[in-house]
Description:
Number of domains: 1
Largest sheet: 4 strands, antiparallel
Amino acid sequence: MQNKACRIGPVALANAAANIVNPPTLTGGVNPPALSTASYLLLTHIRLVNKTAGAVTATLYIGLTGGSAAGTEFAFNAYSIAAQSYVDWYGRLRLDTADFLTGLASASTSITFEAEGEIGVAG
């Protein structure tokens, strides 16, 4: 089965860590692929947009649901994003159903998260 392109967001970041992305499971539904119970995401681009008139910091984490534990920082660790500006991340990040991409901003709803990548079925 071939991966399918996907877009995530836009989602506003709160000032406390919250879930942004978590791949879905495939329990139930009609005709899931044989022996498959989960999906995965391959993120290739993330953009954080500051829509305010002042600088705001943001951090993204990979870990438990709603988590922001030290040592789980993934990208933009307290990174200051200038007013009315954005920052991009490019790479290849796989997230399985047990992985949660979480994040927070120093000012609630000032930063918008957007991402592109692919969704596939784990076999």
